[in-house]
């Protein structure tokens, strides 16, 4: 047996309405409704036979002769197709049995008006028509042809297809379908109006298979209200592209509270008195229930736990369709009519608003003077997703009871979807598929740094320099201004450490000034020590120039001040180390180095090395000085206020020269590290230069890999770390002796330690007073 699974929702809508009415004591008290369902098989013969069965007893067909009073036939709800209802009415009229039709031919006059308005709205004036080759189809053509023509709409073709009643007849129509498909393809009309019975979609899906030529999916299909989205079971694997993008006029429906729960409760595993559910289940899910007698069955076994929501939309929909809603309302119309009869308050007013469920959420319907339904239509866009899921998108409304400006409404933002590709939403752009027409494209996300704020953009746009794309890349966000300031934790922390180490340096300098006449302060030129301490103090203070809003003065001072101060500091270290080495070389008998030992040499080293750096900085400031700049591109979300170094070459020359001095100091101190500790500090200088060089070697990659304020923070950290290395390694050991071990800070102790520590070096050089005299010359 072949069934149409989609019709099962209509059965459930009828059963749900009867269930609600029987549970509502206010409508039909002490009365219960029941129902029988008969199939019309879409033809007159079977429709008449089913009607006779309804009016006869089970034993024999004798119209209007039923002895069972308890199961008396009180009314008939007609089928979904107008002609089927017309066949029933011919018989029922004889026996005065009331009939309520779900749909009526007259309501489609409003359908035609809606289609005409839709065509004029989109300026579609060259159209085709596909209709059924019967009385209803001919009536449709005779109605719309003159009306549409008067409005300037021309017909490219009018195709009529013969109806079929059983599946085998569909295969007999193979040749007919091929010819119709070819005519539609050959026509230049891009819009086709399809009018016919509820199952016409089954035939439309057949057209591409009937012809070897391309299918008709490139046309815009407009369907009249009686046509349903439905399939025969053998069309389960057929392509659904032909129904994608269809515009359908649908009878307005409302969501019914409890209906979805009622559907979800249906299962073939329970005895619910539902004689249709097993056949529906097997056809819809493509499975077979096990045989009662245990015979082997072919195919998949139905478990009864399959989910209705997993079925494709052409087989079953969880949301209420317009046709099912019409059946629901028809049952309520019968119930309220019976209620009026029982209460002796039946009237013949044209507006029968009482024929509705007593709920505010149900849409209002009315009948005209001829008892014909006056209702509205929703304009629905059918969308088939890539996973074959079906969606109904409401894009307009046809309301005959609305005000003149509300009779027809259309969502201007929702145009008929492309039959080849869906719209590309903001945040993406179209990419034409290779070898396909321009209307066939893929949607690709906007690349980093670009955005699209409209549908179907051919290319993504670039945000302005002061904005950047959002994460979804569908709009631009203003950038925020960024620089290392005193108002943020990072700036506050760096400033605090700079001032803290300044305080430590001042404290060390104070200790040295207080004990300036002690041997350990006088050793190796105390004036050089004072110069080095002041340079280190200024190094810490120079870090503060890098914090705050960049301006012309700060940008000029930052790097040049840093370069000069550090050159002086490293020059002092080099001078101290060189003085120590020369002093020990001068103690040898007959040495010519003695004339080089003294304060003048140290001053010369510091002055000459500093002047070279001053020259480099002068050239830098004259040729390409630093200046305030705005960087809008390094960091996506930020506008960075910075100091442009002007010439990066000169900047690295300043760093390179400082590094050169530091390396020379390190090499000299390294070779002098084993000299007696009483007269030199080469070991401490060696370690301090090792720290200094390590900091600035790691500075280069860290500086280049950082952006914005973090680049500035890296340089400040390097300044503080290297300055702290000089202060800690050179001066803290001396402060330790001055403050905590004052007994070691005397001339006799230094000479004694010197003579003991250099037994292999100095005794051969002469009396001890020669070394003492040289030491006095150096320190004084």
TrEMBL record:
Q: GO molecular function: any one?
A: G protein-coupled receptor activity
Q: How does it sit in the membrane?
A: Multi-pass membrane protein
- Provide the residue span(s) of the region labelled Disordered: 760-780
Q: What's the domain of life for this entry?
A: Eukaryota
Q: Kindly list any coiled-coil regions of this protein.
A: none
Which is a Pfam family this sequence falls into? 7tm_3
GO CC terms in record: plasma membrane
- What keywords tag this UniProt record? Cell membrane, G-protein coupled receptor, Glycoprotein, Membrane, Receptor, Signal, Transducer, Transmembrane, Transmembrane helix
Coarse class of the primary localization is membrane
Instruction: List the subcellular locations.
Output: Cell membrane
> Which residue ranges does the record assign to the G-protein coupled receptors family 3 profile domain?
490-754
> InterPro entries from the entry?
ANF_lig-bd_rcpt, GPCR_3, GPCR_3_9-Cys_dom, GPCR_3_9-Cys_sf, GPCR_3_C, GPCR_3_Ca_sens_rcpt-rel, GPCR_3_CS, GPCR_3_vmron_rcpt_2
**Stated name of the protein:** G-protein coupled receptors family 3 profile domain-containing protein
Q: Which organism is it from?
A: Podarcis muralis
């Amino acid at each position: 047996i072949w069934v149409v699974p989609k019709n099962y929702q209509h059965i459930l809508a009828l059963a749900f309405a009867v269930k609600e009415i029987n549970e509502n004591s206010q409508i039909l008290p002490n009365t219960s409704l029941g129902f029988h369902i008969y199939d019309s098989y879409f033809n007159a013969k079977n429709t008449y036979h089913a009607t006779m069965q309804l009016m006869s007893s089970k034993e024999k067909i004798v119209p209007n002769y039923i002895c069972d009073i308890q199961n008396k036939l009180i009314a008939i709800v007609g089928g979904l197709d107008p002609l089927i209802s017309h066949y029933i009415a011919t018989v029922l009229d004889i026996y005065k049995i009331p009939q309520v039709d779900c749909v009526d031919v007259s309501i489609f006059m409003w359908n035609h008006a809606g289609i005409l308005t839709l065509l004029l709205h989109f300026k579609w004036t060259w159209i085709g028509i596909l209709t059924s080759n019967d009385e209803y189809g001919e009536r449709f053509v005779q109605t719309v042809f003159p009306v549409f023509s008067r409005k300037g709409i021309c017909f490219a073709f009018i195709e009529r297809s013969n109806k079929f009643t059983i599946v085998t007849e569909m295969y007999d129509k193979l040749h007919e379908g091929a010819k119709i498909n070819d005519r539609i393809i050959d026509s230049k009309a891009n819009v086709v109006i399809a009018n016919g019975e509820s199952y016409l979609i089954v035939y439309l899906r057949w057209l591409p298979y009937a012809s070897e030529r391309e299918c008709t999916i490139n046309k815009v299909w407009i369907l009249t209200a009686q046509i349903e989205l439905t399939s025969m079971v053998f069309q389960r694997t057929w392509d659904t592209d032909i129904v994608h993008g269809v515009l359908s006029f649908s009878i307005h429906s409302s969501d019914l509270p409890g209906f979805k729960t009622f559907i979800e409760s249906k299962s073939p595993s329970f005895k619910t008195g539902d004689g249709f559910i097993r056949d529906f289940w097997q056809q819809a899910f493509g499975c077979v229930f096990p045989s009662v007698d245990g015979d082997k069955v072919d195919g998949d076994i139905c478990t009864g736990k399959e989910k209705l929501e997993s079925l494709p939309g052409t087989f079953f929909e969880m949301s209420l369709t317009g046709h099912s809603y019409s059946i629901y309302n028809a049952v309520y119309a019968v119930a309220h009519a019976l209620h009026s009869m029982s209460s002796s308050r039946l009237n013949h007013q044209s507006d029968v608003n009482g024929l509705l469920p007593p709920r505010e959420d149900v849409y209002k319907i009315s009948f005209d003077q001829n008892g014909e339904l006056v209702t509205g239509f929703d304009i629905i866009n059918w969308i088939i997703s890539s996973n074959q899921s079906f969606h109904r998108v409401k894009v307009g409304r046809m309301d005959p009871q609305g005000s003149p400006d509300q009779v027809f409404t259309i969502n201007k933002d929702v145009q008929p979807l492309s039959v080849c590709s869906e719209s590309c939403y903001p945040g993406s752009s179209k990419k034409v598929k290779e070898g396909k027409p321009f209307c066939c494209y893929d949607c690709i996300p906007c690349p980093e740094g670009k955005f699209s704020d409209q549908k179907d953009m051919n290319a993504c746009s670039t945000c302005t320099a002061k904005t950047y794309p959002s994460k979804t890349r569908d709009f631009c966000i203003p950038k925020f201004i960024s620089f290392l300031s005193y108002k943020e934790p990072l700036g506050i922390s760096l400033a605090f450490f700079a001032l803290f180490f300044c305080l430590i340096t001042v404290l060390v300098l104070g200790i040295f000034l207080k004990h300036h006449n002690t041997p350990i302060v006088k050793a190796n030129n105390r004036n050089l020590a004072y110069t080095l301490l002041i340079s280190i103090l200024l190094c810490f203070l120079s870090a503060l120039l890098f914090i705050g809003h960049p301006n012309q003065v700060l940008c000029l001072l930052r790097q040049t001040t840093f370069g000069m101060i550090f050159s002086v500091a490293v020059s002092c270290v080099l001078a101290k180390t060189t003085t120590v080495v020369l002093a020990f070389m001068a103690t040898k008998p007959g040495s010519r180095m003695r004339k080089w030992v003294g304060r003048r040499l140290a001053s010369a080293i510091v002055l000459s090395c500093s002047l070279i750096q001053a020259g480099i900085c002068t050239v830098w400031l004259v040729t390409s000085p630093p200046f305030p700049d705005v960087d809008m591109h390094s960091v996506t979300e930020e506008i960075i206020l910075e100091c442009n170094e002007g010439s990066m070459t000169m900047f690295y020359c300043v760093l390179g020269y400082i590094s050169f001095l530091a390396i020379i100091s390190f090499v000299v101190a390294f070779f002098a590290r084993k000299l007696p500790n009483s007269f030199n500090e080469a070991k401490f200088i060696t370690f301090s230069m090792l720290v200094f060089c390590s900091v600035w070697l790691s500075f280069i990659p860290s500086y280049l890999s950082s952006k914005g304020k973090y680049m500035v923070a890296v340089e400040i950290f390097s300044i503080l770390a290297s300055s702290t290395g000089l202060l800690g390694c050179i001066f803290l050991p001396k402060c330790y002796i001055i403050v905590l071990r004052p007994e070691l800070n005397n001339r006799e102790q230094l000479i004694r330690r010197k003579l003991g520590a250099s037994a292999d070096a100095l005794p051969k050089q002469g009396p001890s007073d020669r070394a003492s005299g040289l030491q006095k010359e150096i320190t004084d």
